[in-house]
Specification:
Length: about 80
Amino acid sequence: MTSEDIKSGLQVISEFLDSLQGDQDIDAGTLAATRELFKAATLSRTRLLSSLAALRTDAVALRTDAVALATIATPDVDEHHND
């Protein structure tokens, strides 16, 4: 085995993250957060969990807002008008 066959840990992780790009089973936000921390050389378990918690909080807030807007925008079909 030559030194050309041996990849550094950084190369392995980079190639792994690249291989996940476009995978429908991987959440795009999760992959983006992981890639961002990796590129900034700040990828750690604690920082990743913190980033994922923030993504989850944002997603829940967006979903709650969307449900609230849909509820407001949808007329009540059981409502009877006597005009």
